[in-house]
Amino acid sequence: MAAKPKPRTRTETERTVSLKAISGFVADERDGEFQKLLTDRLRLGMLSSLAVSKTLSFTELKRLLDATDGNLSVHARKLEDAGYVRCDKTFAGRVPRTEYRITPKGRKALERYLKHMEALIKATSG
């Protein structure tokens, strides 16, 4: 007589479901660019900062994220090209001012990323 397989505990089942959700998220082809954009510390920091502020200037973001001008410019452009942030350039007298704001698409992408990270944490914790 063959031994019956041991039933899974609820924790193991939940962990399997979470891992499937995570692997499905990563394997989803349309998320490839999304994954590349938000796994960078500076881009994730920029989106997170903009999610809690109406707008932030280039100088404010640079100070908040401890970034160089060139580095912040490159990452801001990538987020702008993806449609995650909007950049407005104005002048205060003769002084240029660059301000960023998160777009609805950027807010949705950040929310998806955070849900993904929550699932990852749940799947890998005790």
Shape: elongated
User: How many whole angstroms does the radius of gyration measure?
Assistant: 20 Å
Low-confidence stretches: 23-29
| β-strand number | 3
Helical percent range?
Answer: 55-70%
Indicate the structural class. alpha+beta
Q: Number of DSSP helices?
A: 6
Average pLDDT confidence is: 82
**Strand residues, percent:** 5-15%
> Assembly state here?
single chain
- What is the helix/strand order? HHHEHHEEH
Explain what this protein looks like in three dimensions.
It is a single chain. By secondary structure, the chain is an alpha+beta fold. 62% of the residues lie in helices and 14% in strands. The longest helix is centred in the last third of the chain and has 21 residues, at 104-124. It is elongated. 17% of the residues are buried.
Characterize this entry briefly.
The chain has 126 residues and is an alpha+beta fold. Helices cover 62% and strands 14% of the residues.
Keywords summarizing the entry:
126 residues; alpha+beta; three-stranded antiparallel β-sheet; 62% helix; elongated
List the helices and strands and how they pair.
Layout: H1 10-27, H2 32-38, H3 41-51, E1 56-57, H4 58-65, H5 69-81, E2 85-92, E3 95-102, H6 104-124
Antiparallel strand pairs: 1-3, 2-3
Helix pairs in contact: 1-6, 3-5
